[in-house]
Amino acid sequence: MSSTKPEGFSTPQKWLITYNSISASLWSIVFFNTVFLSLSLGQPYFFDMTNKITTIIQCFAVVEIYNSATGNVKSPLFTTVTQVFSRLLIVLGICQLLPESPANVHWCFITLCLSWSITEIIRYSYYASNLRSPDKVPYYLTWARYSLFYVLYPTGVMSEMFMVYLSLDEAQNVVGYLYSWFLKAMLVTYLPGLYMLYTYMIKQRKKVLGKPKSLKKTE
Asked: Mind listing the GO molecular function terms for this protein (predicted)?
């Protein structure tokens, strides 16, 4: 019983619960901005009004690397670094470094924010709930965490790739040909990266949802 009480949590658990809860709340801001502002204002106003807050929230995810490197979480370090870096490339390497890129005012920036925000709200909410009480995580949240990636990962990665592709000319004009070639090299890594993340999540899904007993316990 004591393990479900706040005073029973270890210091790393308290830190992770706080971090995941805050992160879920922050990504909720991105989600509501995306839904309401993209529908009411559209582009380019949506990008102008949201890109800075989205960038700040995404940069907060560098904490994921720290958590993985220190063993606070079991996520593979290489997988974590790959995922965080690919997103920082978008928000810092395109949205901020290339503010005039046609990618920023394209619909792919909207689908990007939508895919990212839904993924992260579910992921962080699941982690926070699981850390508080592993036996009381709502089944719908567990199912969403280990099922919706089938759609959200491809839409997110395709949006990222489209953002990079549309920014190649602007990268060469503003920064130089070396940066443009760097972005081209990054494009080549996206599909293998998606395969790596996809297969990892499929394995995790089998572990979590592949046992009928766990389903009965949560019903």
From this structure: very-long-chain (3R)-3-hydroxyacyl-CoA dehydratase activity
**Mean pLDDT across the chain, nearest whole number?**
89
Closest CA to 162 of 100, 101, 80: 101
Tell me the backbone φ, ψ of residue 179, rounded to 5 degrees.
-70, -35
Q: Which whole-number Å values give the CA distances from 49 to 37, 59, 100, in the listed order?
A: 9, 18, 14
Active site residues: 153, 160
The reported pTM is 0.87
Per-residue pLDDT of 132-158, as tens digits, reads: 988 889 999 999 999 999 999 999 999
List all residues 6 or more positions away from 19 whose beta carbon is below 8 Å from its beta carbon. Answer: 63, 67
d(CA 163, CA 151): 18
For the chain, give percent helix, strand, coil, nearest 5: 85, 0, 15
DSSP tag of 133: -
Query: Measured between alpha carbons, how far is 123 from 125 in angstroms, rounded to an integer?
Result: 6
